[in-house]
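Observation: inputs received (chain + KG4).
Thought: call the complex predictor directly.
Action: predict_structure
Action Input:
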Amino acid sequence: MAAALTILGIETSCDETAAAVVRRTPEGIGKILSNAVLSQVKDHAPFGGVVPEVAARAHILHQERMVAMALRDADVGLSEIDAVAATAGPGLSGGLLVGLTMAKAMAFAEGKPFLAINHLEGHALTPRLLGNCQFPYLLLLVSGGHSQFQLVRGVGDYVRLGTTVDDALGEAFDKTAKLLGLGYPGGPQVETLAAKGDGKRFAFPRPMKSRVGCDFSFSGLKTAVRETAMALPHITEQDGADICASFQQAVVETVSDRVRHACTMFRERTGHAARFPFIVAGGVAANQALRHALEQVAGEQDVELIVPPIHLCTDNAAMIAWAGAERLALGQEDDWSAAVRPRWPLDRISAPAYGSGRLGAKA
Ligand code: KG4
Ligand code: ZN
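Observation:
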C-alpha cells in the first residue's frame, strides 16, 4: 500500500509570502502540519494596491525564513519531505519566480520531485484538504484578482462556467474603499462602514443580473459609485456609510443571482440532480453579508455550502502543498523546465492563455 505523502508548499504569487507542510494519507485524508503566512499588506498600503516590484523584493527578503518556519512548526526535516510544490501562476511574475526558483532548488538538492502548481487549483482543491469532499463540486472564487465559477470534476479536470469580464470583486471593494479614502485592503473597511449605512439610499446597478450564464462584471458598478460620490457636495460619514451599504447590497444581489445561474449550469453540465457541494473561496468570502446571502441561496438551491475557514480562503501555501499532494498521489510531477505562467487559466478550453481586457487577466 502507498505511503503517506508529506509535501512542502510555497506560495508567492501576490502579496503573501507563505510556506506550509501538508500530509496526505493513502486514503486521501489531509492534515496541515504547518501553515506560515506573512502578509505584505503594510508594504503595499501606502500605494493603495499591490506593487509588483515591492512584492517581489519582499518575497526575496522573507521567503527563506518562512520556509524554515514551516518546517520547524511541522517538526519535519527537509529529508522527510516527499516533494516540493510551488505556485507557478497565475500571478505577478517577479514573485512567482522567487517561489518557483526556491522550490526547484530545494527539490533538486534533496533529489525529490517538484510540482509547479496553478494557484487556482490550490483554491479549487482546498475543500478536499479539509474533508473528503467528493467530485464533482461547484467553486466560486472571489478574491482581489479573480471572480469565477469552476466546475471541479477531478484533480486537473476543471470547467470554468463563468468569470468576470472586467474587474475582480475584491478589486471593486478595494476601489470603492480607495474612493472614500478608507485605506487598503478595502473589503473589510467597506463591510464595517456598510453596517452603519442605508443600503437602499443609492440605486446602484446590479451588473449582469438575470443575464444568461454566470459571468460577472463590476466596472459599471464601480463607475456608478464614483459618479455618486462625486455628485455629493462633500461626503459626510453617513454618506460614506450609505455608499458602502448600497454598494454591498448591489454586490450581494448580483452574486446571489450569478450563483443561481451557476447552480443551473452545474446541473446541466453534470446531469447531477441531487445535492452537491458548493464551495466559496477567496478573500471576499470573509464578507458576512455575502455569506449570509449565499446561505439563503444554498438553501433555496439545495446545495451544500462550504466556506473554508478564512485563513484557508485567502492565499496560503497549505493549499499549494495539498494540490501538490493530490497530483503526486496520481503519479504526476513537473520537470525543471517548468516556467512561471503569470496568466494561466485553470480551464484550458474556455480561457485565453494570454491576452488582456475582456476575459483576460482577471479572468
Ligand atoms: O484572496 P485574497 O486574500 O487575495 C487575493 O486577492 O488573491 O483576497 C483579497 C481581497 C481584497 O480585495 C480584499 O479587499 C477582499 O479580498 N476582502 C473583502 C473582505 N475581506 C477581504 N471583501 C469584502 N468583504 C470583506 N470582509
Ligand atoms: Zn488566491
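Thought: report the result.
Final Answer: The first strand starts at residue 5 and ends at 11. The mean pLDDT is 93.
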